[in-house]
Design a protein that fits this description.
It is a single chain. It contains 17 helices and 16 strands. About 40% of the residues lie in helices and about 20% in strands. It folds into three domains: about 220 residues, Thiolase/Chalcone synthase (Peroxisomal Thiolase, Chain A, domain 1); about 130 residues, Peroxisomal Thiolase, Chain A, domain 1; about 35 residues, no CATH class. Strands 1, 2, 3, 4, 5, 12, 13, 14, 15 and 16 form a ten-stranded mixed beta sheet that branches. With about 450 residues, it is of the alpha+beta class. The N terminus is likely disordered. A hairpin with a 5-residue loop joins strand 10 and strand 11.
Length: about 450
């Protein structure tokens, strides 16, 4: 990376309409000449999202993906060996799970001849896996693909810092008794201080800013109050609790069993008894003591997996599959890492333009809830004429999104945000929501640490 690229960005620099327009025109030109095949979402399922509780949870990331994949393939009566490939998103696989997609593929019984690969795009890794499957099927390389994401954030490792690593290296290479004695004499207790990998991953080291601080910036930029953030968080918990009570997730979430026979059936981070009073008592977590972002209005550290089966028309006919949706459009956007939470705005807006849609022409939206301030910031950005003109190059504001269309079963604030899995979860739940409500189209969109956004437009079949 050049020195110029590594410089910290002082002022948010995001895509202009000119850049987006060129990108849209290029895509339309390619699409008009292409012979890409339609790609269908057959079905999917996920594990319960299990809240991390300051120690490794009962399941590794591959355990979770295998549990979800086994249930899905059994439900669809698909022989694992019939798959053309397996693609999974995962950010923190354990040392025993190198290329975790291959590990999961073999454990599912796909056999040695089914290739598998792992993708990483931070919070959107699960959505990237679906997009990668989409491209392979559309290009004719594959017909039947298992794609999704998994993460066991509670299993994030502890490491030694460089001084500790160097000391251990010196001790290991010392040949004589004197050299070993000298190495022991150089020991300092600080060498054993652990580095928490999870916290490292939640910090953008290029822009030198934590993910929580990006949410604080959006709260300041759009004048979002602490009360509004807490209200959004409370609504997320209420909607999630109601969805479980009403059985809205029963076809989506499959139970998992640990080695002791304990059954995990529902997302366990939901606080049905939460209240504005309880949320108001929480102290700022990232920008102490004056910040607005708290643990209560942020997504939770969680373990979970979500997988889907994608198929070509040929595979649908060959295996007599019923399909739920077709993927119509995908967009990836780059923006300033310091306002990464606006990624959904920059990724979704070009999709809306290409498909001649307004915000409320979309029946349902899933915007991943990294932070309440981040989702509210996206809504404010679309409502702002100045933002839409200056940052998106539009002639006027996109408008106000009907909140009845947004995250109707709650989101990551209540359910949790296992980073490798969330992008797949929101696509899966969006498809199921459209299907159950006999609606036509929806957009799943997600912000991405490092300054990106992803969005996917799907329509029911």
């Amino acid at each position: 990376m050049t020195e110029k690229k590594a410089e910290k960005v002082k002022k948010p620099q995001v895509k202009t309409r000119q850049t987006a327009a060129k990108k849209t025109a290029a895509k339309e030109s390619v699409e008009s000449k292409s012979t890409c095949r339609p790609v269908y979402i057959v079905d999917g399922c996920r594990t319960p999202y299990i809240k991390a509780r300051n120690k490794p949870g009962p399941f590794s990331a591959s355990d979770l993906a295998v549990s979800a994949g086994r249930e899905l393939l059994s439900k669809l009566q698909i022989d694992p060996k019939s798959l053309d490939e397996v693609i999974l998103g995962c950010m923190i696989p354990s040392p025993e799970e190198a290329n975790i997609a291959r590990v999961v593929s073999l454990r599912l019984g796909c056999g040695k001849n089914v290739p598998a690969y792992t993708v990483q795009r931070n919070c959107a890794s699960g959505m990237q896996a679906i997009d990668s499957a989409l491209k392979d099927i559309a290009m004719g390389r594959c017909d039947l693909v298992l794609a999704g994401g998994t993460e066991s954030m509670s299993h994030s490792p502890l490491q030694f810092d460089r001084s500790g690593v160097n000391w251990f290296a010196g001790l290991a290479t010392a040949k004589t008794f004197g050299a070993k004695l000298k190495s022991f004499a150089a020991f300092r207790p600080s060498y054993l201080k652990p580095v928490i990998v999870l916290l490292k991953g939640l910090h953008d080291h290029v822009a030198d800013i934590g993910m929580g601080h990006t949410a604080e910036k959006l709260a300041h930029k759009f004048e979002i109050s602490r009360e509004a953030m807490d209200k959004f968080a409370l609504d997320s918990h209420k909607k999630a609790a109601s969805a479980i009570k009403n059985g809205d997730l029963s076809d989506e979430v499959v139970p998992v069993y640990d080695s002791n026979g304990t059954c995990y059936q529902v997302d366990d981070g939901i606080r049905a008894d939460s209240s504005m009073e309880k949320l108001a008592k929480l102290r700022p977590f990232f920008d102490r003591p004056v910040g607005l972002v708290t643990a209560g209005n942020s997504s939770q550290v969680t373990d979970g997996a979500a997988v889907l089966v994608l198929a070509s028309e040929e595979a649908v006919k060959k295996y007599n599959l019923k399909v739920k949706a077709v993927i119509k459009d995908v967009e990836w956007a780059g923006l300033d890492p310091e306002v990464m939470g606006l990624g959904p705005v920059f990724a979704s807006t070009p999709i809306l333009e290409r498909n001649n849609l307004g915000l409320n022409d979309v029946d349902y939206w899933e915007i991943n809830e990294a932070f309440a301030a981040q989702v509210l910031g996206c809504l404010k950005a679309w409502e702002s004429s100045d933002f839409c003109k200056n940052e998106l190059g539009l002639k006027k504001a996109m408008g106000k999104l009907d909140l009845k269309k947004l995250n109707i079963s709650g989101g990551a604030i209540a359910l949790g945000h296992p980073v490798g899995s969330s992008g797949a979860r929101i696509v899966l739940h969006l498809v199921n929501t459209l299907h159950k409500n006999k609606s036509k189209r929806g957009i799943a969109t997600i912000c991405i640490g490092g300054g990106q956004g992803g969005a996917m437009l799907v329509e029911t079949v």
